[in-house]
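WARN no homologs supplied; continuing
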Amino acid sequence: MNIDRIVFAFAGSMILISVLLAWLVSPLWMLLAAFVGLNLLQSAFTSFCPLAIVLRKLGLPAGCAFR
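OK structure emitted
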């Protein structure tokens, strides 16, 4: 897996987890989904993604969006 796919999988997982926690625990967990969504939106325009930076430093191969 490359960095692109890992970022998408992580973001999708975090959104699903936050929706599940909002349903089971507290609606305030939707703030996590909003944060993830905002981070994805800003990374589309600025190419700054903290997770991608960490994964690159760990030596994972870059995908087409992070070259």
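The first helix runs from residue 3 to 24.
OK
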